[in-house]
Structure formats: structure tokens, C-alpha cells
């Protein structure tokens, strides 16, 4: 038994009861934590977890998160006075992350509230040509009156850009996103978003409500949402510099202009076929980061572990590059087993680890001697084959020249017995 950061852990043994339910170690625990709670996006991990890991970090260090997502790591660093950089391949998350890091104060908070009240009064659904996002089967997301009211609200937010200023409009867009998703016919499972089964019933009752009532309901929700966003701006605000760069973590050295990092805290995509584009598409279409399905699939193909839209057909033709072996003794056997169930899944797993290997090789170029790395990862199961993700990461770290590699179990991920979340620790040689 060893005492890790996250409690007593016995590797390879059934995890003790205290590990079984640890909601504060997931993104759910971030909901009420100032800027961290702005949008409840599935890729986020726990702020609590990051803060635990940052306890070992001095204020003169430089932290890197090469898979920034919603910016949990850089925002945690910035509010603790530690400088950090982050990278993500998704332009919406880069926009959102950088907005979270902005040094915004009381004045902007007041402007957001004043503007939201005015916008709520200005929503005008009478135009027949109001822009709506080109989201596939949009009628499954919102009934017609709600969609018209949301589109009119979104249009009103973008008015008077010179008077309102860029940051105020961006914060109003965040407030809009909270309302848009609150009004959508979707629910959030432990891992992904799905359409509610009783959506049609909800649609009928909303249609009876009439468009005037619908506009009032959405306007009211928007004012409340804007007030919550405004109030959270000054809660544990960032006091150190943090930036999120758009780029590929397999090519960090060309994204991060020569800086060297002493600590890495990150959560790469898990090899579980969850697509961030799929999860984030309502936000991305409304805010103009996506305009059609082809674009969505192409972006997901660039992401590690992406399988949305055309990313799936591209994966069908993918072949291993031949010179990048995965240094885990059972790896080929595991891929063969998974491929028996579905050839595409075998290829998916193989490509995932090739990508992670090329990320780790590139990561070395931006780390200072002795730099510590903490990778939060989850294992997966394909049919009956368990993929020991944490062990493969540990071997990849060793193979790419890292030392002091170790694994800690953090929590159980689902009711399925074998699925856990781990932190894989590794260090650059000194
Ligand atoms: C598990 S999420 C990170 C969650 C983050 N820790 C948070 O709290 O929000 C993984 C992220 O990796 C990003 N990603 C996937 N492939 C990437 C790549 N090649 N380069 C950079 N980022 C990538 C995804 O867009 C996603 O935001």
C-alpha cells in the first residue's frame, strides 16, 4: 500500500471504498467555482485535482498544459500566481480558455449586467431572416419558438460592438451559451450528451406557450445567466499570466515560442471514442467556430482520438507508420483482440498511441531538465478487452527517455468494475 496524493492506493488491487465516489474529482466539482463554472463542458477535469498537483509547484515555475480543454490548469495556475501556457487544437476552446484568463474587474462585470438587461428588452423575433446555426437536425435540439427566440437573442448580443466592447460581448456570449444549452433537449450522462427521450412532449407544451411567453422566458434566463457570469468574474481572479495557444500537441516546439516548462499538468483525450467535437458542437455552431459537418469531421480528425463524421472514414484507411512501435509487451495482441470485434476500433487504439508517442517525443523539446509531468488518464474497455491505458502511458514515458515514472489511481469512473482514472507521473532527466 502506498500513500499517494489522492489517498491510499494499492496498485493492481480492488480500489478501496473511498475511491468509489469522488465527484469533486470530476468536472461536476467545478460548477460553482468562479470562472471555472462558466460552461459545463464534458472535457473538463477537476480543479481540486489540479490544485492538489500544484501544491508541489513554486510560484517561479512555468506550467504547461498541452491539452488545455476548458483551461482548468492555466486558470488554476493563474489564480494561484503561477505562470502557465496551454495548447489546444480546438479554436472554440482556445477562445474560451483565453477569455477565462482575462484580467477583468468590477467595471466589466457591471457592463455585462447593464447590457444584458437592455438586450433582454431588445429581443425581436419579428424578422423572418434571423441567422440560425447550420447544426444538423437542429429541430431535435430546440422547438421552433425557442430557436427563434435564441436566434433573436444572439443577434441582439452582437449589436453596438463599439459601445459594449469585445470582452463584454464575449462574456454575454458565454451567458448566452448557458441559456442555449439549458433550453436544449439534451441531458448529460456521465460521459457524453444525449437527446432527452421526452423531447417531443416538451416541444408540444412549449408550442402552446406562444412565442411572446417563450421570448420572456429566454430573456429572463439570459439576465440571470449574465448576472451569474458577471458575479463570478472577481472570484479567485487570475493574478499571473496565462495564455492558451491554438496548435497541435504533437508539434509543441513550433507552437510555444522557445519557452521551457518545469511542470506539466494535463489530461489528454482518453482512448474511449468520445469526440469533443460531438460534445461541443452546439457551442461551436452558435459561436461561429463551425459552419458545416465536413468542417466538424476534419477538425476531429486533427484531434487525437477524434472519430466524428469524416474522421471515422479517414480512420478506415489509416495504417500504422511502421517506424513508431508502441513499447508495451502486449500491445499488438491487445490491438488484434480489439480488431476481432471491429477492425476500425483496433486501428483507433493503434493510432491513438502512435499520436501520444509523437506528442511525448515533441514534449521533451519544451521541458526544462528535471521537469515533472502529471498525466490524468482513464483506461477503457473494448468488448471484453481491457485497455490498460495508464500502463501503456507509463511505458511510453520510459521509452521516450523520461525517468521516475509511476502510476497513482485517482477514482473509479463508472459502475463498470474495471474503469478507473489514474495520474501517470514522469520526470525529465535532471
Ligand atoms: C480531456 S480534454 C482536456 C480537459 C481539460 N483538462 C479541462 O479541464 O478542460 C482533451 C483536450 O485535448 C484536445 N486535443 C485533442 N487532440 C489534440 C492535439 N493534437 N493537440 C492539442 N490538443 C488536442 C481536445 O480538443 C480536448 O480539449
Strand order of the largest sheet: 7-4-3-8-9-13-12
Q: Portion of residues in helices?
A: 40-55%
CATH class categorisation of the largest domain: Alpha Beta
Beta-strand percent range: 15-25%
Output the radius of gyration: 22 Å
Query: What's the pLDDT, averaged over the residues?
Result: 89
- Weakly predicted, low-confidence segments: 8-21
CATH homologous superfamily label of the largest domain = Vaccinia Virus protein VP39
Number of separate domains: 2
Strands, count: 13
Helical stretch tally: 16
Ligand inventory reads:
S-adenosylmethionine
- The backbone outline, from C-alpha atoms, is globular
- The structure class reads alpha/beta
Within the CATH hierarchy, at the fold level, what is the topology of the largest domain? Answer: Rossmann fold
Task: Give the helices and strands as they follow along the chain.
Answer: EEHEHEHHHHHEEHHEHEHHHHHEEEHEE
Straight-line N-to-C gap: 28 Å
Reported for the largest beta sheet, the result is: 7 strands, mixed
Examine the secondary-structure arrangement and name the CATH architecture of the largest domain.
3-Layer(aba) Sandwich
Compose a concise summary of this entry.
The chain has helices at residues 47-54, 72-79, 91-100, 106-122, 144-157, 161-164, 166-182, 199-209, 211-232, 252-255, 276-286, 293-302, 310-316, 331-341, 343-363, 389-399, and strands at residues 2-4, 7-9, 62-65, 83-88, 186-188, 193-195, 242-246, 261-266, 367-378, 380-382, 385-387, 403-412, 420-427. By secondary structure, it is α/β, with parallel strands linked by helices. S-adenosylmethionine (SAM) is lined by residues 43-45, 67, 69-70, 72, 87-90, 93, 248-250, 267-269, 276, 303-304.
